[in-house]
Records
---
Amino acid sequence: MKTVFAKLLQSEAYFNFKHNYLAIAGAILLGFFLLLAIFGPFVTPQNPYNLKELNLSDAYLPPSVMDSSSHFLLGTDQQGRDMLSGIVYGVRISLMVGISAMLISLVIGTTLGLIAGYRGGWLDSLIMRVADIQLSFPGMLIALFIMVVFGRGIDKVIIALSMVGWVLYARTVRGATMAERSKEYVDAAKVCGYPDRMIMFKHILPNVLTPLIVIATIQVGNFIITEATLSFLGVGVPTTQPSLGLLLSSGYQVLFSGLWWVSVFPGLTLLLMIVGTNLLGDFLRDELNPKLK
Amino acid sequence: MADYLLEVNDLKTYFYTFKGVVKAVDGVNFKMRRGGILGVVGESGCGKSITGFSILKMIDPPGKFVSGQILFNGEDILQKSEEDMSKIRGNKISMIFQDPMTSLNPLYTIGQQIMETLAIHGNMTEKQRRDKAVELLKVVGIPSPESRLNDYPHQFSGGMRQRVIIAISLATSPELIIADEPTTALDVTVQSQIIHQLEQLVRKNNSSLILITHDVALVSQIAENIIVMYCGKVVESGTMEDIIYRPTHPYTKGLLNSIPRMDDSKDRLEPIKGMVPSPFDLPVGCKFAPRCECCSSKCLQTEPEAVEIAPGHRVCCHLFDEKGDC
Amino acid sequence: MSDNLVEVKNLTKVFPIKQGLFSGHFGKPKQFVHAVNNVSFHIKQGEVFSLVGESGCGKSTTARTIIRLHDPDGGSIHFGGVDITHLGEKEMYPFRRRMQMIFQNPYSSLNPRYTIRNIISEPILFHKLAANKKEADEKALEILNNIGLRPEQADRYPHQFSGGQRQRISIARALALNPEFIIADEPVSALDVSIQAQILNLLLDIKDEYNLSYLFIAHNLAVVKHISDRVGIMYLGHIVEVGNKNTIFKHPLHPYTNALFASIPVLGQKMKDPAITGDTPSTPIDLPSGCCFRKRCAFAQKICAEVVPELKEYEPGHQAACHFVEKGGC
């Protein structure tokens, strides 16, 4: 592991990274939010899921910068929930949902893409037609439908997002697999008598991973937004476990009556998370693209 | 009028990459008279293609012209502006590239591509351009040229496409044509037709041709003069007879010995031992020394200078400093 | 029972040109590429047999069909006396060890994500020629040593090696299973001239050391002349002439063979007029009736358009498929 890390530090990729301020900014943002998600809950003044800790009389208190009587750094929402704690736990949910859904759709999409690309024939046509049909509906619509049918909950959100997200991986991997399939090292593997399964996963898969890293990074951001939207619309996470989207929606009605902090802080947090994933994803896409070299 | 059509003096084209400096062309000298055919021979990485691109000043960053002159009709190309160069490229000097599959734009008919060259470098009317295009296709041996003008590149075979490219390169009756491995991607029967045609056309138009290739046998068939390159330097230069029948540089000799020939019956070939060094890790002293049978300590320390061992026949080797032999 | 290691009889392979919405699954494809047409030849134990021809002649497809990378559409392939034409994946398993292949492109024939140690030890482990990974690695290092690579280089990746070294690694991979028969598909065409000689010499050395037979595919006749015992000339998927090295190079019979030999640049000789006009069609879709070569042949007669010429023997071991030769020849 140490040598891998040392090699990474010497590589051209790291050199380009060091000089690309946007990429560094993206990495810092993401790193910050990851740390927040892992360690934040231990240091927040309040556990926003614990209804016993909430005090309705604390509702809609402004941030302490504005009003020094309020001891809530970012104010409270209509249930007396500390915004800071809510946001920290919300970030945790966002990242958990985003990363889990990304991993699940990665596995499903990559497997289907490998099979479609390598086998070709009717299996390929079938998988791609299913993908096309799914793509003809807006992803949000499909996710919404699934949530309405199965009800609210973090696990259901993850499933819904995975069912929408696999298509991008499948198509990308299929294209890359078809390109690799015609290379002679695959022929050499066949000449040695390796079964298809082995050729697909041991030989071709390591060579098609590169574009997946880019897609995965950006997709985390997309899933975070989608989850926030679903929660905003009221079909995502339950109200007792608020995510950033839910916090946003709860403050939406009072946004223009001067109680701005309930929506704006969660909104800003979402913005920064997405900016982080996109900046890093952009850098990775340019860096890992062999054609630009 | 200058004595020589093309004079390359101590040309150095280096590439400044992340991993280090690649001295692609490192002090190349040669001269060409009007109406001749020069062969530039060497293996991959020796700098022959970059020499060709340098003559047309087609070197992009991270490549840079570090020093030297390229005198075309007495004027230094390296001092010219892009605007001046665009009047020379495709007009006075044209180039034929290696891969006929990708040298033509797939979205335009070949008629459009030939006429585009004529439109940029001349004052002909549309009809005159069309007629000239038909004539050019006829000259390069494409049957039914009038109807084929409207065809797209993918409707031609590899050999036909290369003929079209030759037609484009001859369109403006250039003084110099640079052909970079023009037949490497083609079959041998097609190759013989193409090279034959190219030679005839060049002689007829009194143009000059630089043929860049790794195929020594091919170049020996049409070139009057040959230069042999290795690691960015010219190791030997002279007439075709000098190089083929009286090779003196150990690399030239090794190259000729390692080529399987139709006309001999040796069972084992004599390869040159070792490998071409990485451009980032070139040896100090003579670049060929580590692979050379006759290597001495002097060879490992200092680079040899070119010595004229017979009129027109130059070698870059320490063996000929002291008139020694191996 | 003949001592032929490989026997190919009337081998045919066509590729459908796909059309339609569902890529031809639900409709019959209208056109075929006739890559290999009725090809027959044999390779004896310890022999080097070369198939020569220009692009589109079907030599690579023939080789790949013999090693069952493609499924033949007609004819038969016998290896060591056994008919392997229609064997399934499981039944082919024992034969995979005995026949191996070296490919043309040194850049795409090695998996860029594998170290070269693993490239060579993987087949050894898969075919159970070693009890565990450690033993397989040892065997791999031994072979690498034999072909001229040092053990310190075993943990590097293919992109860290030159073209010539990569071909050596490909050869090492082919040797890993200790095969009897190796198909070399243009193994030196992508290499520099001075490296070609090294690799060709290596192939000859290991042939003696490991007791191998080769099917050598090439388009460079000079290379073929140096390495082969027998040669087959192919055009548009047909074998037009076949013979021993001595006979075929001394007096070629078929007009195409003559044209091919005449087109090869000879060192130091001024160029002659081209021996043949026209281009070789690179995808043989519509084969001419009768003789496949008649459209470019200077000697074509009426019968050439009507009857497909068969391979006939004109001297021991030397056969040609040509009506003109039959009638008295060149």
Note: Residues 193-210 of chain C form the longest helix (18 residues).
---
Amino acid sequence: MNELLLLLGSSIDSGTPLLLAALGLIINERSGVINLGAEGLMLIAAITGFATALATKNDALALLAGAGAAAVFAALLGLLVIWLNANQYATGLALSLFGSGFSAFVGIRYTQESLAVASHHGPYSHHYLVYVAVLLTLGLSWFLFRAKAGLVLRAVGESPEAAQALGYPVRLIRLAAVVTGGALVGLAGAYVSVVSTPLWVEGMIAGKGWIALALTTFATWRPARALLGAYLFGGVTMLQLNLQGRGVNLPVELLTALPYLATIFVLVLISKNPRWIAANMPTSLGKPFYPGA
Amino acid sequence: MIKLEPRAQPSRWLAILSPVLALGITVALGVLLFLLLGKDALSCLQMFFVEPVKNGRALAELSIKATPLLLIGLGLSLCFRSNVWNIGAEGQFILGSIFATWVALRASPESGPGLMIALLSAGALGGALWAGITAVLRDRCNASEILVSLMLVYVAEQLLAYLVNGPWKDPNGYNFPQTITFLSSARVPRLSEGSRANIGVPLALLSAAACWLFIHKSFAGYRLDVAGLSPAAARYAGFSARSALWLPLLLSGALAGLAGALEVAGPDGQLTTHVPLGYGFAAIIVAFVGRLDPLGVTFSSLLMSMFFIGGELSQSRLGLPKSITGVFQGLLLFSLLTCDTFVKNKLRFVSSGSARALAK
């Protein structure tokens, strides 16, 4: 029983970065902008956070630094796709490729270092960011579906033309969504390198940014469902590590591939019903917007 | 006030000029980075733009690295033209190298050219099958090809790790995760004695010519273009949306798989976890910088090959991390996308009076 609780607790821990990133991407995509650069942003935030933690020994500052760095690069993406109308898919990919190169380049002198961080073991002992992520989920749910500003954000994602006709500054709202979303994705990246595994390894995000992107679809762009999905994925990761630790008679590689296979499986399951996706997906997602056209 | 206005027709001149301009911006940013790191910018640039084309041996090396980039870049151009976002070429490359290894491990010293044909075909088949999974899930279940193809990269990496750590591990390999070194009959033939360049180079150039004919001269290629530019128009014309998904995905998978086969049986000569070096991802940039056109992709694959070699040389000679290549690749694509804005749009200077009138 205690072991099950432990597994549950660790699933929540390992699902938290996915949750934070998915929440950020939900904000992003609700405004009509898709961000395929999430993986790159998380990597940039991971190395920034780790370097800051090493220099200042301040956990909170490191997390904020990671979020800030990611927000800056997200703003760059925003300028390119919102003002210059660059292709959102290509620009996001550029950010992911740049992020992986840039973080590896900057991180080369940090590969031997590690942080001394208070460990959080036991089913009831979590890093405070775990609780913050839950509160953010509730807050974002309220914001999107109960607050007027959230309604405006969704309107911008559904029909930028209509939102503009009503007098809302579509481009600025989108930029705000991209920067806020980027900061949350960055917080997730910094959590990985500062809290989960307090060290820096090249490419350590290992697809979490992409899995978070899949989670937004899985959650049909709803924060509460993203929480469920993120913890589920955290569970798959922990189960897989747990089985590896017990020396189960399965190839380690198959177990390591499990989270990725699970992502594909879940995507297939959700996308199979086109009506469900169509009813929930922000209508203008990924499409350029020309004000005054 | 400056306003961006869509052009009625994309500017053809700027479409060609834009990659050149983007390269210029990347180099300028590169110089800035070198200076910030306190390195001699001139000798750094030399590693990237002079050393790789210095002499015959350097050029052979350049063409060896450009070969997989060209093959994969061609396939991705087909995909991106028809708006299929296959970003998992790295996984298709890995499967190609795995399938080719399966053939190579069955070679005997007497095997003739038939074995080489089987090996390369197996590579193409492996890549096409892996891309086929993405196509099936997109076609049947509407699953995003971006995410599925990318997740399959991680799965392919694990499959590769399993094989070289398990069933295919060289028993005399000091426990390293690697297969035996392939017999010379299972190695891609070289173009001439003493040169490291192999038949992969002409094979890639032939593929480029074939892709050029397919895109510009065939009706099937035209249908893909229409499907990419306007799905509604393609539907109206009765062009199959399904073949606009399957054909480019299978072709790009096959080309990436072929690249994987040429790599494992060419310069590497054995399957290890170090066979995939990120060519599948770099080829995304190759495709865009080459304007999704086989001729352009041929040039951009050479450029990207220079980036790879320049990165390696900067590491060995100047003590800079090799990952600087990745930084430049990302910067190049960023600059290109920025410059491309002006291919499709023009700047208009609006006086503040008329700007206010426009705003109303």
Note: Residues 66-291 of chain B form one domain.
